[in-house]
Amino acid sequence: PLPLPPLSLPLLESVAALNPSRIVYLSCDPATLARDLARFADRGYGLRRVQGFDLFPQTPHVEVLATLIRD
User: Fold this and answer.
1) What is the per-residue pLDDT across 26-35, written as a single tens digit (0 to 9) for each?
2) DSSP string of the chain?
3) What is the pTM of this model?
4) Is the dihedral of CA 30, 34, 35, 39 positive or negative?
């Protein structure tokens, strides 16, 4: 399976502009997840929970589910 493209900055800004109290973010790329968590933190969201999932055993892919809460 191919990974999904990373979240674009305009889409991230659109989501944050909706001012949801909680965001649940699924990522298949730890590097872009770290980048986007920092961007959400700059917009007032804190990381509440993170959990990894190995949905494709015996491959280098890992999925991460992060829950962010507005501070």
Assistant:
1) 998 888 999 9
2) -PPPPPPPHHHHHHHHHT--SEEEEEES-HHHHHHHHHHHHHTTEEEEEEEEE--STTSS--EEEEEEEE-
3) 0.86
4) positive
Q: Which of 31, 29, 27 is nearest to 67 (CA)?
A: 27
Phi, psi torsion values for 13, nearest 5 degrees: -65, -35
CA–CA separation, 24 vs 58, rounded Å?
26
Q: What is the rounded CA–CA span in Å between residue 55 and residue 38?
A: 25
From the number of C-beta atoms within 10 Å of its C-beta (0-12, 13-18, 19+), residue 66 rates as: buried
Residues labelled catalytic? 28
**Distance in angstroms (rounded) separating the CA atoms of residues 16 and 25:** 12
Quote the pLDDT of residue 40. 97
